[in-house]
UniProtKB/TrEMBL annotation:
Region listing for Disordered, in residue ranges: 190-230
Single GO BP term: post-translational protein targeting to membrane, translocation
Full protein name: Translocation protein-like protein sec66
Keyword Transmembrane among UniProt keywords: yes
Organism name: Aaosphaeria arxii CBS 175.79
Amino acid sequence: MWPFDIVDWLMLAVPIAYLFVLIGSLAVFSSLYRKRKAASAASLEPWFPPHLQRNVYMSLLHMENPKVPDSILKAALLRRATEDIHRIVQVRNAKQALQVLLQRGSVGDDLWKRFQRAEKEIEEELRDVVSEANAFAPNWGQTIFQSASEMAQNTHIRERLNDILSTSQSEKEWWEKRKATIQSEFMKELDDEKEASVVSPVKGSDDDAVLVEGGGPADSLKGKKKKGKN
């Protein structure tokens, strides 16, 4: 009885040990793969530059002496949400074009991983802003991004207007220079035409003088008649 039981246990122990070894190997491989993937993702360059508005808000929020008033904190949070609006627009505009380039093989997987990480970061950022806004006032998280969007549009309009004004000034200066050049060229052409009109009659008078001095057809006929009479 005992030998048979030992053999049975040994036959069961072999596959059980194999399963333990297999599961352990898979666990080690999975852990190493996740660590390597995390290290690779951490080594990728961020899609966006550092979030300055978020850093300013967090610095003001954790100031204890003196304590920052809520009005300033709300303004800083609104500026943070405005920067988030700019980043959302950039992500939406870049996603479709990046997908097309990825399908064509024009960009590598690293760029796509950077973009996906940026999407996750912006989603977490939006949730954090909503949570912070609701902590200041109930339901403010539902309207803060609407206010931030209006601020972003106003900022864009002001920047566009400044660009137009600066461009119009340079175009005005260019047109003034061009107008002066055209005027000077036109006056030069008028002066050349005046000089040509003054010189041409003088040449004609010289030719007439030569004809008079040399004698014309009428003078030659008169000379022949006088010779015939003689």
